[in-house]
Write a structure and sequence with these properties.
Length: 225
Amino acid sequence: MSGNNTIHLPTDQAVKAGNPIPDPAAPHTVASDAAGHAKDNNVSNEHKTAELYKLIDGIETAMLTTRAKDGSLVSRAMQTRKRQNGVDIWFVTNKQSHKLNDLEFDNHVNVAYYRANSSDWVSVSGIAEIVTDQAKIEELYAPDLKAWMGDLGDGVHDGGPRDPRIALLFIRATSAHFQLQDKTGPRVLFEVVRGAMTGERPVPGHPREMGQAELETARRAEVNK
């Protein structure tokens, strides 16, 4: 996402603080799964992409993690407004939020999703941009935002789509790790109980990994639909 209505966030402060920031243009190496599950090298990019879309589109609330100037990590609940061109994600935010201060320091973020009634989860790493394009704000605006923004009663800061406090966060994904449960709930429960008795680890689903090259392929495929 780029253009005249995009605020490009500096990262040099993070480097000066002793926290080097990786070059977004550099090849991204996805770390292997620490749990020791079977690798997904034989799974097609199309199959992994379909699983990833199903997860993100099916879980409404995400946890957005930013890094503060003191190096601490802060996570906040966010409602996904739109997934675009693959796994790139849009959120609506308040310009007065402290998360924007974090992004001025370091615009590398993580977006995590978890479905409580299953073992489904997603972890997306990416680069955040603040977007103030009014047409895009109106496209992604929904009436429920009015309750979260509040109405200050001045006829301007009313929580509506033209409220000057509203901005967008665009997250361009650089990597994704996820797992979609591919077994029924009773089957997973059976494996958990059996594992407690035998020491055999239950495998509710298979972890997937997608790096920059795979995500770029997914973007092109969606644009060309």
